[in-house]
Write a structure and sequence with these properties.
single chain; 110 residues; mainly alpha; 0% strand
Length: 110
């Protein structure tokens, strides 16, 4: 079994990579999907580390973005999808930016 130091290093690397994907997703959606899948798959790696809360945050960002992104797309037919996407864009920027800042500092999301 991997040591705690190895798991922490792997969890940190995945956390930073996923936040980078989320920030790239502010310009196109594909990195958000890739980051969301990675966050779901790598959650067990972070168990018991400071990065566990970051992966929980990343999974939450993925699902909320998916739901509100689709909702914005559906409501764009009525002309009200753009404001939903704008708020979602700012929310993802905040969650990913703050998360990256905390992760680089070695602090948990909470």
């Amino acid at each position: 079994m991997a040591s705690t130091i190895d798991r922490t290093g792997a969890a940190r690397s995945w956390t930073l990579l996923i936040y980078g994907l989320y920030l790239a997703a502010l310009f196109t959606a594909l990195p958000l999907v890739l980051g969301g899948i990675a966050a779901l798959l790598k959650r067990p790696v972070a168990l018991g580390t400071v990065y566990e809360s970051h992966l929980d945050n990343q999974v939450r960002v993925f699902w909320v973005s998916l739901v509100f992104g689709v909702l914005g797309w559906v409501l764009s037919i009525l002309g009200i999808g753009w404001p939903i996407w704008a708020v979602l864009w700012l929310w993802v920027l905040w969650r990913a930016g703050r998360g990256l800042w905390l992760a680089l500092d070695g602090r948990p999301w909470r």
